[in-house]
Amino acid sequence: MTSKYLDLSSLHRRFASLALSCVHREYPNKIAHVLTSDADIQGPRRLTPAFYGCFDWHSAVHGCFDWHSAVHGHWLLVRLARIDQTLTNECCQALRQSLTKENLDNEVKYIDNNQRQAFERPYGLAWLLQLTMELDEWSKDNHQIYSKEIHQWRENLRPLEELVVKRLSSWLPKLSYPVRSGEHSQTAFALGLTLDYAHHVNNETFGQLIEQQALRFFAQDKFYPFNYEPSGEDFLSAGLAEADLIRRVMRNNPDKFIEWLNNFLPENHQLPSSLEPPAIADPSDPKLIHLAGLCLSRAWMLEGIIHMLPENHQQRHQLSELSQRNAHAGLTAIDENHYEGGHWLGTFAVYLITRRGIN
What InterPro entries does this protein map onto (predicted)? Predict the structure, then answer.
């Protein structure tokens, strides 16, 4: 899909370089952190020793203790190490430093605290499960040089994985209503990532819980008002994320999904112009650059929806063209000179170009 616009091998190198340059850069750093005692007054590396990177590039003066960005930055490295052998060695060097048993055990100690029940819920926790899934798949690949290490990283991550699944399993039944925001709190996006994980590891109990809650939240939605999107700082589409989640839930019943989708789309089946790529007024603004991420996530969500449609579906071509335009806009908006987008947009780009949510 995106190879129409850009060379994929050079994109792999570019986005790997973004992550490699920052996953172990501790400062500058801005911590959002619940203090439970004086002992919690420590630097990022001590608080969360696996996922502490501040994701700063070049001469930017802003920093951010984005645990979720650190987590999905590591996902990016695992993903590219798996699919591009020219990057495997470099990516493994970084992963070797982060994914030690000691580091990940300390991550568990930090998160497993009554004052941190909502820590990174649901966005960061969903990406942690994506990282787990990627490592688990990689551990089953034939990598003779790194296989022992990959298996060890996978095992090191298991206690944190179990804590995250337990926490989400406890929280979901108590969530009375879905959060339909275009940012980290959104429910549909996180459920999509976690459902992929549950399917992969054959956790039927967790998968059934996610599917039940997804249907409870979204099964009756009709004529979604796409013209209300986007908000000015969105990096996710609430409407498309919902549809992308439901196609996962109904993955074995495409006819049922098409029936749901026909009810969900606008009554005249003409998607509004608001789903066209937005203008980004200032790519150095940490909130306004969210719109570049919106383009990337829209593109992969549309591709997921298209994947469930028959070749003769009346909207297949329209959705495909819309996906292409958003993909092109999002990929060309990424600028290494601006930390504000660079520290996370590479992950969204790699998720898109490698068709992670589909394959």
Answer: DUF2891
Q: List all residues 6 or more positions away from 142 whose beta carbon is below 8 Å from its beta carbon.
A: none
pLDDT the model gives residue 31: 67
74-118 residue pLDDT tens: 999 999 999 999 999 999 999 999 999 999 999 999 999 999 999
Does residue 85 contact residue 355 with C-beta atoms inside 8 Å?
A: no
How buried is residue 155: exposed, middle or buried, by Cβ count under 10 Å (0-12/13-18/19+)? Answer: middle
**Residue bearing tokens 């203090």:** 35
For residue 191, give both structure tokens.
């459920």
Q: Is 217 helix (H, G, I), strand (E, B) or coil?
A: helix
| Residue 323: pLDDT over 60 | yes
pLDDT tens, position by position, 168-224: 999 999 999 999 999 999 999 999 999 999 999 999 999 999 999 999 999 999 999
∠ CA(240), CA(136), CA(71), 5° rounding?
Answer: 60
Which single residue is written with the structure tokens 């470099």? 90
Alpha carbon distance 351, 300 (integer Å): 8
Residue 109, C-beta contacts closer than 8 angstroms, at least 6 positions apart: none
Tokens of 229: 């999107």
> Residue-wise over 244-278: b if at least 16 C-beta within 10 A, else e?
bbbbbbbeeeeeebbebbeebbeeeeebeeebebb
Are residues 11 and 349 in contact, defined by beta-carbon separation less than 8 angstroms? yes
pLDDT band at 340 (very low <50, low <70, confident <90, very high): low
- Domains of the chain and CATH, by start: 2-353 (1.50.10)
Going by C-alpha positions, the residue among 137, 231, 115, 124 that lies closest to residue 180 is 231
